[in-house]
Amino acid sequence: MFNEIEFEKIKRLPKYVFASINEIKLQMRQNGEDVIDFSMGNPDGATPQHIIDKLCESAQKPKNHGYSVSKGIYKLRLAVANWYKRKYNVDFNPDTEVCISMGSKEGYVHLVQAITNPGDNAIVCSPAYPIHYYAFILNGANVVNIPIKWDNEMNLDYESYFSDLKKSIQNTYPKPKFVVVNFPHNPTTVVVQKDFYERLVNIAKKERFYIISDIAYAELCFDDFKTPSIFEVEGAKDVAVETYTLSKTYNMAGWRVGCVVGNPKMIGALQKIKSWIDYGMHTPTQIAATIALDGPQDCIDEIKAKYEHRAKVLIESFKNAGWELSKPKASMFIWGKIPEKYQEMGSLEFCKRILQEAKVAFSPGIGFGDNGEGYVRIALIENDKRIRQAAKNIKQFFRNS
Ligand SMILES: Cc1ncc(COP(=O)(O)O)c(C=O)c1O
Asked: Does 188 contact ligand 1 (Cβ within 6 A)?
């Protein structure tokens, strides 16, 4: 019906690359096969008990059952501001510089919707968490990619990044208005130090663009690495916002609690668009999220230790299977280079074959953009026993193919 009515916006979204892997996975499970699944960054652990208890307690109170506040209840905005003060020694005004979102993804998408005009240009790393590009594409903007390069300790290659950034700014018309950064980086796990943001903020002020930084994995860092925030840089608030989430830190992915903080002009735009679009997240969830941020933080050490331990087990057992991988400094992933022998088939085909023949699921690097080709993303969401089993299956696959 109505062939003349086209949904142009939806046509700008390509077919989801991960969909074909998901379809095979579903089919295998329906056939009763056990898939060892490293494909999604979906934490497998339980939310800490004290947070669940607070949710239950506040859900009993009728006053919490009505519409909430679209930018988030004051106490949660204050808890976010206090988290930044404790962790990074930076100050935010909870009214004008903090907005609560239904997961950081929702905050990011609505922020981009609020601040982007059709035809704008944004600079985003490649590979990337897909919505980092497609939020702009959905809003009629264009994205210029900067390839992510790193050293053998998974640190960003600054010189390559800043040289590409300079070229992209010079060669793109109209001049880019936005630069998106995400460190620890999904999918590569690459990290930066504070001096990266010093350089970036400096360039943003000179070249006149806004920065959106995503630190979803801020708390999941290993050994002595600590995730910096862009706001540790003096004056960053003039040009930047940052998104953060409770999904990974407290195993709360399904609860949908995140935030965006920083530049009041951008935060004001997000708060305004959200006031038109939604009535705010379920109040008991916001109260429990406040307790997550304000309450005991030792649960984070346990969650972190679990991912670090799994990374160690996976690297050791995959090495025995003949596959060398690098240790991440942060996040809940390993970014694995596909063994030489299988490079030519590409990451999507490699993932399909290994899924069908070894019953192990990974995310193909190409799903994160062209520069992800040749790699797979391995999410550390299976336990030790299943990691070792996956390694055995893969060893067999390598032998037979
Ligand atoms: C880099 C990055 N940002 C944001 C998100 C979204 O997190 P949420 O919407 O659960 O806060 C994810 C989820 O995997 C992510 O990897």
From this structure: no
